[in-house]
Amino acid sequence: MDYRLYPRHDVLCIDMRSFYASVECMKRGLNPQTALLAVVGDPNRRGSIVLAASPALKKKHGISNVSRYFELPEDSNIVIAPAHMGDYLTVSLEITKLMMHFVPKEAIHVYSVDELWLTVDGLEPLYGSTHTIAEKVKSSIHEQFGIDSVIGIGDNKFLAKVVMDLHAKKSPNGISECRYEQVADKLWPIEIENIWGIGSKMKGHLNRMGIVTLGDLAQFSQSHLKKRFGIMGEQLYWHAWGIDLSPVIGQFTKTEQKGYGHGITLLRDYTEDEIKACLLDLCDEACRRARRDDRAGRTIHLAIRYTDEIGQHFSRSRSIDVPTNDTMEMYDVCMQLFEEFHTDGAHIRKASVTLTNLTDDIGTQLSLFDNRADRKQLNEAVDHIRERFGSTAILRASSYTSGGIALDRGQKIGGHYE
Questions:
Q1: pTM for the whole thing?
Q2: Homologous superfamily, domain 191-240
Q3: Which of 24, 74, 94, 115 is flagged as catalytic?
Q4: 239 phi and psi, to 5 degrees?
Q5: Do the Cβ atoms of 83 and 20 come closer than 8 Å?
Q6: Annotation says 115 is catalytic
Q7: 272-292 and 327-341 are packed helices; what angle lies between their axes, rounded to 10 degrees?
Q8: How far is CA 309 from CA 294, 313, 317, 346, 347, in A?
Q9: Going by CATH, does the domain composed of 260-417 fall within 3.30.1490.100?
Q10: Where residue 368 falls among pLDDT bands split at 50, 70, 90?
Q11: Which of 24-38, 77-91, 199-213, 396-410 has the least mean pLDDT?
């Protein structure tokens, strides 16, 4: 591979280690490296997931982020911390602001609440080598927030991310680097399931083709991969050679919204009557977001998944003549789809609604018998109240029934309590 044909950048991928647990430790004045602390989604539910465990808890008891609350051992030294997503988002935002001391905001790409990329091209005269910059960034995060981090360095975002996942987390100083010329030595021996972007399903497909390591993938026919997997196969091939042409700058550019959707995985089986209140709350939230952006949509999607195989899961859509962001109009279409495709007697565990085929929300000609204008004014008034006093300041009566979800969701961020 002639790497002279491909762009080279200085990209850092930064991961805050045991982020949720570290934040909870710092709130309690504990050392994140030595404290035994578990962040639990909801301590009132024995089956709740352990969202994060401190490094010491992972090492001593083998607790991971897929463990359940009831699996925690009887150890009086373990601190149970309820998840506070608002705190984690606040700290994440402050860390992002700290990164602006090193680079402009256009050079920052936030990947998740605890992970981000920095493009540090041209900073050597100010701070020294790329490795020195990584050390300064890592030190600044620890000094200001008490949170340890690991950093991968690469010619692009893919290399920085993969070397961070595979090598930096095992490195004594938490920093590792992989340039184009090091791909064969550092990455090719790695089994493909450990490579970012390759899930279990793709692993199965590749293994059946005789591809076990990233090196196997690099030596496989590019045309065969593209024929089998389309554009994804072509991307897999280039990634195996360490090539990633995705932009490393200007990530704060706003992309066009394709749709407004809302979904939920229910904590128990829902009946046909209960799901009606749930769908109304979901439509309410999707339309509220559309109204906020002055957008309306012509196509409404409904997806339902059942608890067992009694019913066949379905995802259907229907288009309407006049674009809408009215909750009741969207809900009426969802109920039409539900009544048409729902399997009687089947228990429901997942539901989602989406408003797509978007256009600007402009005035439409109304008939004398159309009450759209009145509903629009009512929606705007409700939106204003919720924006000022909170999402649960005013709710529909159905939200207080056994099927309603708005009251509980209004107290959460990212599916967990603030």
A1: 0.68
A2: 5' to 3' exonuclease, C-terminal subdomain (1.10.150.20)
A3: 115
A4: -60, -35
A5: yes
A6: yes
A7: 140
A8: 40, 8, 22, 8, 10
A9: yes
A10: very low
A11: 396-410
